[in-house]
Design brief:
Elements lengths: L4 H6 L7 E4 L3 E5 L7 E7 L14 H18 L6 E4 L15 E5 L9
Antiparallel strand pairs: 1-2, 2-3, 3-5, 4-5
Length: about 110
């Protein structure tokens, strides 16, 4: 999608502080962190929101969670704990309309969601 912020990050048009990248996913630091560690994990395939996903996206959806778990281990927050959240649609608080997962940790988190 030519106007998608995250697609521009994927193609390198917009810089990011990358934490992890493979053929399917990209993880980078959120520019407006809500916790000491706040990383966004996105599929490289453009999907606007979680509610657009169906059976054809099973591998992408499971891959998001597995990538979050692997990144949490790699950066050292897996043992102490972390939160994952996906906002879907405007009423769900989604600001960028490209499916993404928030990985947050690095300290005691309050009860609020992303």
């Amino acid at each position: 999608m030519p106007d998608c912020l995250f697609c521009k990050i994927i193609d390198g048009t917009i810089p990011s502080e990358k934490i992890f990248e493979n053929e399917e996913f990209l993880a980078f630091k959120d520019i407006n962190p809500q916790s000491p560690v706040h990383i966004l994990i996105i599929p490289k395939k453009h999907l606007a929101k979680l509610s657009d996903c169906g059976n054809d996206e099973k591998e992408i959806l499971s891959g998001l969670l597995l990538t979050a778990n692997n990144v949490a281990k790699e950066i050292g927050i897996a043992e102490s704990g972390y939160r994952v959240a996906i906002n879907s649609g405007d009423d769900g608080g989604q600001l960028v309309h490209h499916l993404h997962l928030h990985l947050m940790g690095g300290g005691k988190l309050d009860g609020r969601m992303a």
